[in-house]
Amino acid sequence: MQLDPEEQRTVRLFQDNARSVVNVSTTASYGPLFSPFFAQQQVPRGVGSGFIWDTAGHVVTNAHVIAGSKEVTVTLSDGTVAKAQTDTAMNPGNSGGPLLDSAGRVVGIATAIVDPTGRGISSGVGFAIPIDAVRGMVDQILRVGRVVRPALGISIAPVPQAMQGRAAPSWGSQAERPAKAEGVLVVTVQPGGPADVAGVQPTRRELSGRLLLGDIITGINGRAVRMQKDLFAALDQCQDGEHHLG
Question: For the chain, which domains are there?
Answer without folding.
Answer: 5-144 (2.40.10.120), 154-236 (2.30.42.10)
